[in-house]
């Protein structure tokens, strides 16, 4: 299920999308793009809860998480489908 996101999250999602598109990235890479002060974990968690990002463990280092953004059009269509069910 995809949920609508607040503007502050959408702005950060957009920055990541234009940098990585549908490619994979790490938390550290996201911090560099967003020039984050360390609050990146909350942002990534909110994206995951809302269904806008996919998460998997690194095959090289089990302590690292790999992130991949869902394509915005696909995510928006999923959100519209959810709204249509209501």
Structure description:
With 86 residues, the protein is α+β, with helices and mostly antiparallel strands. It has a single domain, classed as Orthogonal Bundle (Arc Repressor Mutant, subunit A). It is 55% helix and 15% strand. It has helices at 7-20, 27-34, 40-50, 72-85; strands at residues 24-26, 53-57, 65-69. It has a three-stranded antiparallel sheet. A hairpin with a 7-residue loop joins strand 2 (53-57) and strand 3 (65-69).
Low-confidence stretches: none
CATH architecture: Orthogonal Bundle
Into which percentage range does the β-strand content fall?
A: 15-25%
Distance N to C terminus: 13 Å
Order of helices and strands: HEHHEEH
Task: Specify the helix fraction band.
Answer: 40-55%
> Main β-sheet, in a few words?
3 strands, antiparallel
Question: Mind telling me the CATH superfamily name?
Answer: Winged helix-like DNA-binding domain superfamily/Winged helix DNA-binding domain
Biggest sheet, spatial arrangement of strands: 1-3-2
Backbone shape? globular
CATH class: Mainly Alpha
Number of helices: 4
Backbone CA Rg: 13 Å
Class based on secondary structure composition and strand pairing: alpha+beta
- Quaternary status of these chains? single chain
The number of distinct structural domains comes to 1
Number of strands: 3
Compute the average pLDDT: 87
CATH topology: Arc Repressor Mutant, subunit A
Which keywords apply here?
Arc Repressor Mutant, subunit A; single chain; 86 residues; 3-stranded antiparallel beta sheet
